[in-house]
């Protein structure tokens, strides 16, 4: 039976690890999960806000107990877990009677007499998937035979509509290589091209990092990193932060060289491959001149500007300097501290980048609930720009200090719960190998 002190230590470690996992590559996430002892892993799965990719990796590599704890976690929203809405809800759909005559005319037979063949299924999905997943889900509710290899070959030959791909991700138990292939080529002329990618992450089929590796063409990946605001299936705020992290990790070889970023924007509209291949070709200067010198559409240009390194903030006036200094001085209460930070954000004196760099302790800076106030749903923060900017800056600091070395990430995880200084101070101490105590 653990003591109360050991229990508090496990809870605090789980809380800090949950925030670090938002910024770590997939292989580091898997390694860090394996290093946690049983009590800390239990609290991580049961009580913490978990990024979508972290949940996917926990379900993929964890055991039955991890899955049970995650299913009981009220902060895990919209994931494919026991007791939560998922594929089973869609699998129970019944085909409306109005659709059957249409399918009967297209097939030349009654679709309920015998199961649809793989070829018949693909033909129906190709014809009825341009208006969202509703009709494809009705088709998949009929008895049918699925051939993943034929499905993938047909999709690569001529992409299926986005609505049909989304329906397949919802209700079919497809192998990973088929899921990756369905995401590898999308119908470029569809307004809802992004929905299968969002659905695949939300269903736990892929992580954000895997999505970046497989989505094509490259301009789609860049747009997924900063989707324009429309009324449609969209990233939640934590999912958007996770996608931004994965895309910026792929763009890291460009550094802060404006010429490379200009080349990226020039070649992105016509490049057919995934984003990592485009970035590698840009850095190696092996790309031929684009055959069709198209101007990037405004949404793509806006996405690249959002993902590119920002210029350093110039020294501000006295009010800004005081606001920066105040991040290191706790107020009389947490509520007063939150009120002050929010007021500075509203007045433009602080940004999310400033909070990550200057707020202490570092574990509070990484948790936006400690400077924007607690919310009961991750999309209800009313300062999304500050949250995304803070995530991007934390990504940059972790990448520069820790790279992709699991041991370095684990040292930060062990140090973070008791460290009283800022995040840059913590990373400097850990990478230099000296004392990491931030207390006097």
The class by helix and strand makeup works out as mainly alpha
| Alpha carbon gap, first and last residue | 33 Å
Instruction: Characterize the main sheet.
Output: none
Low-confidence stretches: 435-440
Radius of gyration: 24 Å
Topology (elements, then pairings):
Blueprint: H1 4-21, H2 26-35, H3 38-47, H4 52-61, H5 64-71, H6 87-91, H7 99-107, H8 118-127, H9 134-140, H10 148-157, H11 162-171, H12 176-184, H13 195-202, H14 208-214, H15 218-224, H16 237-251, H17 258-267, H18 275-284, H19 298-307, H20 318-326, H21 334-346, H22 352-358, H23 362-366, H24 369-372, H25 384-402, H26 406-415, H27 423-432
Write a concise synopsis of the structure shown.
By secondary structure, the chain is mainly α. The protein has helices spanning 4-21, 26-35, 38-47, 52-61, 64-71, 87-91, 99-107, 118-127, 134-140, 148-157, 162-171, 176-184, 195-202, 208-214, 218-224, 237-251, 258-267, 275-284, 298-307, 318-326, 334-346, 352-358, 362-366, 369-372, 384-402, 406-415, 423-432.
């Amino acid at each position: 039976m653990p003591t109360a002190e050991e229990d508090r230590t496990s809870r605090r470690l789980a809380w800090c690890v949950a925030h670090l996992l938002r910024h770590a590559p997939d292989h580091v996430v898997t390694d860090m999960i394996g290093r946690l002892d049983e009590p800390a892993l239990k609290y991580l799965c049961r009580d913490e806000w978990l990024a979508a990719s972290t949940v996917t990796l926990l379900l993929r590599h964890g055991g039955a107990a991890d899955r049970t704890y995650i299913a009981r976690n009220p902060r895990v929203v919209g994931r494919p877990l026991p007791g939560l809405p998922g594929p089973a809800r869609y699998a129970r759909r019944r085909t409306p009677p109005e659709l059957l005559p249409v399918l009967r005319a297209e097939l030349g037979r009654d679709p309920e007499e015998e199961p649809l063949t793989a070829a018949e299924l693909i033909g129906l999905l190709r014809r009825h998937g341009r208006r969202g997943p509703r009709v494809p889900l009705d088709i998949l509710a009929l008895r049918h035979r699925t051939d993943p290899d034929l499905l993938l070959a047909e999709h690569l030959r001529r992409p299926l509509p986005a609505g049909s791909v989304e329906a397949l991700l919802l209700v079919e138990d497809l192998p990973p290589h088929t899921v990756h292939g369905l995401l590898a080529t999308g119908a470029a002329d569809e307004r809802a091209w992004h929905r299968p990618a969002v659905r695949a992450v939300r269903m736990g089929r892929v992580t954000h990092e895997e999505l970046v590796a497989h989505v094509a063409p490259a301009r789609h990946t860049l747009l997924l990193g900063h989707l324009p605001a429309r009324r449609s299936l969209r990233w939640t705020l934590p999912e958007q932060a996770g996608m931004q992290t994965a895309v910026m990790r792929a763009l890291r070889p460009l550094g802060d060289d404006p010429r490379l970023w200009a080349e990226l924007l020039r070649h992105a509209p016509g490049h057919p491959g995934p984003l990592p291949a485009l970035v590698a070709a840009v850095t190696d200067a092996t790309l031929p001149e684009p055959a069709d010198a198209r101007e990037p559409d405004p949404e793509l240009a806006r996405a690249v500007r959002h993902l590119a390194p920002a210029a350093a903030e110039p020294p501000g006036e006295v009010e800004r300097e005081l606001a920066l200094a105040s991040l290191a001085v706790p107020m009389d209460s947490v509520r007063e501290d939150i009120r002050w930070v929010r007021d500075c954000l509203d007045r433009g004196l602080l940004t999310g980048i400033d909070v990550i760099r200057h707020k202490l302790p570092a574990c509070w800076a990484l948790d936006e609930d400690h400077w924007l106030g607690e919310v009961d749903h991750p999309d209800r923060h009313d300062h999304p720009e500050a949250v995304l900017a803070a995530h991007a800056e934390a990504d940059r600091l972790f990448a520069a200090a820790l790279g992709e070395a699991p041991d370095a990430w684990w040292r930060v995880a062990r140090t973070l719960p008791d460290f009283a200084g800022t995040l840059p101070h913590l990373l400097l101490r850990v990478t230099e190998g000296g004392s990491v105590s931030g207390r006097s």
